[in-house]
Amino acid sequence: MRRVIIVSDCTDVAFLELCLAIEKSAFAISPGVDIRIGPLVPAQRFSEINAAFLVRLVAELAAPGTLILCVANSLRHRTERLVGRTARGDLVFVGANTGALGWLTRDLGVRECFEIEDPGFVPFGGKAVHAPVVGAVAAGKPLASAGAPFPPDAVRRTPVAEGDIVHIDNFGNAKFPFRADGLCHGDRLRVEVGGRRLEAVYGTRMMDEEDGTWVVYPGSSLGLHELGQVRARGLLDLPCGAGHRLRVRRAAPRPVRAGDQSERETRGG
Predict the structure, then answer these.
(1) Which residues of the chain fall below pLDDT 70?
(2) Closest CA to 26 of 132, 117, 126, 129
(3) What is the DSSP string of 54-69?
């Protein structure tokens, strides 16, 4: 059985077209081949940084031999079409050389890589070119049959800096790289994102906080941190997404006023 995972911003009938194109190509070569496709991993539209994160994320737990097809390309210029195999994990990747494959190849390395023979421009290259290659590989054809060798160091990478949002999930939680040096549970923070300044707290388990509290915490994905809002909509209503940058700073201690001091003393604080 060959498992195929599709990462794409084509989330309507185009996803089904990709699936059918893969199956048609595979069955033409080996009618009895067992292929399991999906479910779709939906990427944010026109976002290479989100596609790169999702490709790397699914690779983290994918079984050896899994094929990962990435169909997401918003670049103005046409790029090479690639098929390759990772050095670690024995995963096959297929997609345009836009940067969406860079996080994967950086972390897992490249055992072999080939540039798919270019038929020229076609309106839906994912369906017409990439999907048939996935089907052929799933049916047992070697990667080298797709085209000429391609240098692994020429696989583009989408740069990701500290604070860059790489994904916002359906709860409105943002995933981003962040160095939390010196921060402790309960530290007060100020976060700038989507044109807003948010008062937040640093925590280890966000759901321990009160409803509506903004929390920065170590997340579950690839060593990234997350920003979320406890039992609320998080960033879903803010004008931001993958590719935007947020800034996290430790909040300055609130100055103690004379009235506050006397009140604490009255309470025995």
Answers:
(1) 253-269
(2) 132
(3) HHHHHHHHPPTT-EEE
Cβ atoms 125, 98 nearer than 8 A: no
What pLDDT score does 263 carry? 36
* Cα–Cα nearest to 102, from 118, 78, 86, 116: 86
Residue 192 token pair? 């700038």
- Tokens matching residue 102: 């860079």
Specify burial of residue 137 (Cβ count, 10 A radius: 0-12, 13-18, 19+): buried
- Tokens 């190509």 -> residue: 25
Three-state SS annotation for 79-119: CCEEEEEECCCCCEEEEECCCCCHHHHHHHCEEEEEEECCC
Distances (CA, A) of 56 to 5, 179, 213, 216, 228: 12, 20, 30, 22, 22
d(CA 245, CA 237): 16
Q: Where are the alpha helices (DSSP H) in the chain?
A: 13-29, 48-61, 102-108, 125, 131-138, 258-267
Question: Which pLDDT score, from 0 to 100, does residue 266 have?
Answer: 30
| pLDDT attached to residue 267 | 34
**Which residue carries 């048939």 as its tokens?**
132
